[in-house]
Write a structure and sequence with these properties.
The chain contains 15 helices and eleven strands. The protein is an alpha+beta fold and 341 residues long.
């Protein structure tokens, strides 16, 4: 029995409640992936990787707790690669001490430095932007800055999910990194004053509420709008809104990452590095673009037409590591201003 199969069975009933994909028979060449991405979203990538390399991919998917799981498994952890979303998850994995540096000239060449850990523990493999879902009927302006979201002209017109959610935490942390804690606090107070309702739901629900006339602006990730457009039950929410790519004053649009990390005790380390490098390759990057509606990390890979329709993305130049360093401050400010109350 492989270490991965044994670990999957041992943890089947624990509090993490991970969803374990059916595992193949023990393979001579394999790599074990723990992922926060839904299996259905990443399985096309793993199938293509196996076809290209002959390396079988075993998958454990969960919505939370993977860092703690790897830590609890210790030296016997079967995890080779952790695939995650958002700099919050990435930062938590590094802080938990369950990763090791990815030593790869391929990754260093392809992934821009601002989307890599300075110490090599993680690398971005795709991007998403935090944007505005604007009412087509009630919002006429074509450009909005993040700073402007605190302008009283938007009073009672903005919908957003919890300020403590990792997606908003990253945006708020970027604001702290850009402007400092004092200005960020003032901005959060202004943004809170402009909310149409208590923060709730998810990004899709902000579009729903804009469509229903509860607010004029919703804040969400780029890929959710594209997913709504193809969902018959939610297409009306997308049809009633349009995506505006906001920017920081004097800067660009805030982006976040889907990232990959190499597990500290990876039993199949070489295969783990192969997978990480493959994910930065043209084939994988095109799958990310077309199947997951994300921005490729690799230059030159065509965007999905829906994403391209938002307009030209000028990603802010702030290094992701600097944003991650302000996550705790951003979270404290959210509580201080009573953002979610």
């Amino acid at each position: 029995m492989s270490r991965f199969r044994a670990a999957a069975l041992a943890f089947a009933a624990v509090v993490f409640a991970a969803v374990v994909a059916p595992l193949p028979a023990v393979a001579a060449d394999e790599v074990n992936v723990y992922t926060y991405r839904e299996t259905k979203l990443v399985q096309p990538l793993f199938d293509a990787f196996t076809k290209d390399t002959g390396i079988a991919v075993n998958v454990i998917s969960a919505s939370s707790g993977l860092e703690q799981r790897i830590k609890a498994e210790g030296a016997n952890s079967p995890a080779d690669v952790l695939l995650t979303v958002d700099i919050g998850r990435i930062d938590e994995a590094v802080a938990a001490g369950v990763t090791q540096p990815i030593k790869s000239a391929v990754i260093d060449e392809i992934v821009p430095a601002r989307y890599r850990d300075p110490d090599g523990h993680w690398a971005g493999i795709s991007m998403r932007a935090r944007v505005i879902y604007a009412s087509k009927d009630r919002v006429k302006q074509e450009a909005i800055t993040y700073e402007e979201l605190a302008d009283p002209k938007w009073k009672g017109k903005i919908c957003i999910r919890s300020g403590q959610h990792i997606y908003n935490n990253a945006l708020f942390a970027a604001y702290v990194a850009k402007h400092g804690e004092e200005k960020a606090e003032a901005w959060l107070r202004g943004l809170k004053a402009n909310l149409a309702q208590k923060p709730s739901g998810g990004d899709r629900e902000t579009a729903r509420d804009v469509a229903a006339g509860k607010c004029d602006l919703g804040i969400g990730n780029t890929y959710y709008w594209a997913l709504m457009l193809k969902d018959p039950d939610k297409k009306a929410w997308a049809d009633a809104t349009r995506v505006i790519l906001p920017t920081f004053e004097g800067g660009g649009t805030h982006v976040n990452l889907s990232g990959v990390l190499l597990a500290k005790n990876a039993p199949n380390k070489a295969n783990g590095v192969k997978l990480i490098e493959w994910l930065a390759g043209e084939k994988a990057q095109q799958i990310y673009a077309d199947a997951n509606y994300e921005y490729p990390i690799r230059p030159g890979v065509p965007l999905n037409p829906t994403i391209a329709g938002y307009g030209r993305l000028t990603a802010d130049s702030l290094p992701i590591a600097r944003i991650a360093a302000q996550r705790k401050t951003a979270s404290t400010l959210v509580d201080k201003v009573g953002f979610d109350n």
